[in-house]
Design brief:
4 strands, 289 residues, two-stranded antiparallel ribbon, mainly alpha, single chain
């Protein structure tokens, strides 16, 4: 509710106009509300409720504005010395800033040096890892080659084939003449040497050797050098299979089962055509007799 003020009784008797109520001064707290709106505030100061003309209201607001400006000026003057002291205290700040900048640059260089060291160490570790992998590949290759050579020597011993380059009777074995070994009486004589179990073991050993060579890479110089040994072993196995096939064909007591087993060994060697050729030759010889 709007508050009104009334004049003194002594002075009011002298002037009848002074008997009229007049509005209270504008409250300063009204301007400090967070939701202050000038239009709403002016609407609340309606002349009919305040008994005040618009000109008087305008004059009062101007006085309030002038009062605020005066207070602001006094506030600045009273704190002017503090502003000057603050400016004085900031003198020499450039030196502090420069010290901080130099420190940051030094720290940045240190970080760069550490980063370069880490990068170099990472590259060295990667290089060592690659070298280790290459060594492992070399070791695996060497182990594979040793295994192939060992199995070659084992199969050569089982087939009683002279190893390539081995000395015999004070001289070197002839690498070119394999027909004498293949056509020797010892290679064709005796059914114990041509048992299907023995032949099957030799065929499996030879097939395993071929698979190992393919796995290691047949283009390796050492493996290319073993091709002659592999050919000798293959020819010897075929010779034994042929002798076994002839014996099984000639011996009726052995019957078809042994013949089928020998044909299966030819199939494992991947040369069924050779078995068919030999059987045809044996049949033609039998008809001639």
């Amino acid at each position: 509710m709007t508050q009104f003020y009334f004049g003194d009784s002594e002075t009011s008797s002298e002037n009848d106009d002074d008997d009229l109520p007049f509005p209270a001064p504008l409250q300063r707290s009204s301007f400090l509300t967070p939701t202050f709106s000038p239009s709403e505030y002016l609407a609340s100061l309606h002349p009919q409720t305040r008994h005040q003309t618009l000109e008087d209201l305008r004059s009062e607001l101007r006085e309030r504005s002038s009062s605020l400006q005066t207070e602001l000026l006094e506030l600045v003057n009273s704190n002017y010395q503090d502003f000057l002291d603050l400016g004085g205290s900031l003198k020499g700040g450039d030196e502090k800033v420069e010290e901080v900048r130099v420190g940051l640059l030094s720290f940045e260089k240190e970080i760069g040096r550490v980063k370069n060291g880490v990068t170099e160490r990472a590259e060295m570790v990667n290089s060592l890892i690659k070298e280790r992998n290459e060594l492992r590949k070399g070791i695996d290759m060497a182990r594979g080659l040793v295994e192939i050579n060992t199995r070659l020597e084992e199969l050569e011993g089982n087939l009683m084939v002279e190893p390539v380059g081995k000395k015999a009777h004070g001289g070197w074995v002839d690498l070119e003449d394999d027909s004498e070994d293949e056509n020797s009486p010892d290679a064709a004589d005796g059914t114990s040497f041509n048992s299907t179990a023995r032949l099957k073991r030799f065929v499996r050993q030879y097939i395993l050797l071929k698979s190992l060579i393919v796995k290691m890479g047949s283009n390796h110089p050492f493996l290319r050098a073993q091709e002659r040994r592999m050919n000798r072993l293959r020819n010897t196995i075929y010779l034994d299979l042929e002798n076994a096939l002839q014996n099984s064909k000639a011996d009726a007591d052995m019957g078809p089962p042994r013949l089928i087993k020998i044909l299966a060994l030819y199939s494992e060697m991947g040369n069924e055509c050779e078995a068919i050729r030999i059987l045809k030759e044996l049949k033609s010889k039998g008809l001639k007799k």
